[in-house]
Design brief:
Elements: H1 4-7, H2 10-17, H3 20-50, H4 58-88, H5 101-135, H6 139-145, H7 155-190
Length: 191
Amino acid sequence: MDNKFFNAIAPYLSFIDNGGMFRKPFKWLYMIISAINIIWPIYILYIALDSNIFHSAGKVVFVFILMWLTIAFAGWMSFQLWWNRSNKVEQTSSGSNDFVATPVFSHFIQTLGEWAGIWVGFVGFVFALLATIILGQQGAYIGQMMGLSFLKTGVWSIILMPVYGFLIIILARFFAEQWRTVVSIAINTKR
C-alpha cells in the first residue's frame, strides 16, 4: 500500500516520530524567552518611570539605579542562558530514539530552573542587600515601584535569597535528571 491515499500524512507522522515537532518549537520558545529577558530591563525602567521613581528621595533613586543595573545584568545573563540552551535543545534526542518528548521537556525544566535560580539568587540577594543597607524599612517601596513586589528586604532575605536560588537550580536539575533517568531505564530495559 504505497500510494498517496494511504501515505499522504507520512511526512507529518515522521516529523512527530523523530522528535522534530518537539525540538523545533522548544528551540523557538527558548529564543523568544531569551529576547524577553534582554527586553525585560527596559520594561522595568518603563514601570519605574511611570511610578515617578525619579521624583523620590535621592537614596531611593540611587538604589533604583543600582538595582536596574543588576536587573540589566541578570537579563543579559538570562538571555545568554536561554540562547545557549536553544542550540542544545535540538541535541536532547535524535530521530532514532523511542523517547523524544520527555528529554526535550526535561531540558526545558532544567533551563527554567537555572533561569529562576539566577533571578532569585542573584537579583534577590543584591536587592535585599542594597535595600536593607541603604533604605531600611523603605526597601519594600522600591520593589513595588519596579513592579517586583516579590523582592523582600531584611537580613534574612540577604541570607536566604542565594540559598533559594541555589535550591531552585538544584531541584530543577534533580527533576530533569529524574525524567532523563526514567527514559534511560526504559531504553536499557527494552534492549
